[in-house]
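[Q] Does anyone have a clean structure-token version of this?
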Amino acid sequence: MEEAFKINQKSSKLRNDSAVQGTNDSSVLSKISAAQLGYCRDDFLGHFAAKKARRSPLVNRGYYIRAKLIDHVIKGFLNKVALKNQIVNLGAGFDSTFFRLKDQSLLDNTFFIEIDFPDVINRKINLIKSNDTLSEMCPDLEKKKEINGNTIYQSLKSNLLILGIDLRNTELLEAILKSIPQFDENAPTFFLSEVVMTYMSVKSCNSLIKWISETFSNCFLSVYEQINPHDSFGQVMCSHFTKLGSPLKCILKYPFDQDQKNRYLQEGFSVAEVIKASHFYQFYTSAEEKKRIDDLELFDEYEPWHLKCSHYILVSATKGSICSQILTNIYPKLDLTTLKSSINFDSSYISYKSHDIKFGSRFGHSVCALGSKIFIFGGFGELATDRYCKHLRLTSVEVVDLEKNSLKILQLPADKICDRIFHSCKIIDKNTMVISFGRSNPSKMFNTITKIVYNQKDENFEINETDLELKTSEFDIPRFRHLMSPVPNNGLFIYGGKFYDQSTNNSKILNDAYIIDSFNNIKEIPVDPNILSARHSACVNQWHKYLIISGGLDAQENPLNDIILFDCESQQFKQIEISQGCVLPRYSHTSHVIDDTLILIGGANFHQNPPGLCFIDLIKMTAVEFDAPNENRLMLVCHQSHIIDRNNILLIGGGAVCFTFGTHLNKYPSILDISKCWSKLSHL
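[A] Here you go.
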């Protein structure tokens, strides 16, 4: 029995090792896709794959920021160290870093070492030897020795050593390295772990970290891997790797950036710094570079892009004066204490409860309420009545009667409703809804505004398609992720959003405003960019004679936290200042005005803790942020919400495509109890 258990354990370990090795192949294809489209320059990756595959813009961006972060620290190390040095690529796989850096003449003083499983290394060696471009860069690459199946290859001319060995066997690894004359444990040594150590057990991983800190007198270890497993995105991410057979074994032990820093300090390093991929992109990527990336291909997956970036970090730990000084010089310094201190992390102020019936399982949709009936239009997701839960852009309309607790699916004319997402829907009188613009894919915008009149029968009768009268008009201002709000005299206010320019094949962020009257006449409203900057995915609400614009994402992909008033009488914009408290930057949120209080719900930004709820007293101009409880694993982006009463808000839908890991949908609506928040606001 004991022997059978050991065999089963060994078999399980081999399956896990094989699955981990498999991540190398898919990763290489994604890196090639990003390089081919110009996200980053790498002339050598393509030689390591027999086929090519074009990934989605979201995946290309994900591998772009990964490459930029790693390139930043490696080149920072090489540019600062003047002495003979070493680079050790842990779990190198088919990575082309050696060839890329050598081609740029950056390895003149560097002994480059690659380490991975023997099977992976043997495949890589065969690829190098069979490729003229690669073999010319290390012409004398030969097998030097083999120890218990662990292969050692070396190119003396290129200062390259490639080891086929299990990283968990640090004793054998050290013995092999010390048998190589070119190896020097006292030389400044840079270690790279690019989504490698997270697949190892906590014990094995920490043993490797400790071995590095104890063996090398001057070392610089940079580790790129996942964090934050507990929210909805993190759960989809972790579940994905578990299904692949390569679970993230360290993430629960070290879930956040501070845990990661402490880990390396505890294992013998002197200094440890962490930067999230999100912060690197937001604060240390120039506006010109962001514009270059945005022009490479059409992109409209901001929420999952920023969520992905907030779940990946680069942690760098150093020991020894030389490497510690290098870390100080190249690692970005960010002061986020002001933002962090503005959040009340006591989530006891807010509670959720699930609604009785399933509806609104989609994102990028719109919602309108006529009496007790809620109409849900468009979006991407699944119909509540679809037993197969197929994901697609939706044309069917879900109508929920909150009083009767009933759901009805309506099939309205497809040419008027369309399979649109990121459109807008508002009520303009007691029985009329208006749907404006939106898109199907990022290059196909809609230029229509459709009025839907509900000819309401007796409340005892069920709603049917014949009860809705649709009238569609075309306007020469197509857009999506824009703002729309009713204004006096049955007019509509339209502002901003995104626009796809067919002449240049690029998209741009708009900063224009219009009033459309009841006769469909359009009047353009001047916008001062110093008061209201170009943005999309913001919110707008009516308050007395004003419209209130909150948040959004600007043209440089910076989430915004400003509050703008539009005076419907003078048709002037003005920015208001918060006198006390703080409003977190956010976009893709929802908002409501209750009495004289503006409430912002959810949204996305670049931070590990996404926004919860913000209460803004519009008379006192004070604000307080509340953290949202996480037990329901809701993703509060691309959602919609509806005010039930002063103390309860109905959350409908929301979610995102979670990088390559899967799609998260808030499948059931939730009721948000905010009754405790009012007292906190009143005490400011």
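[Q] Thanks! Anything notable?
[A] The CA atoms of residues 30 and 398 lie 38 Å apart.
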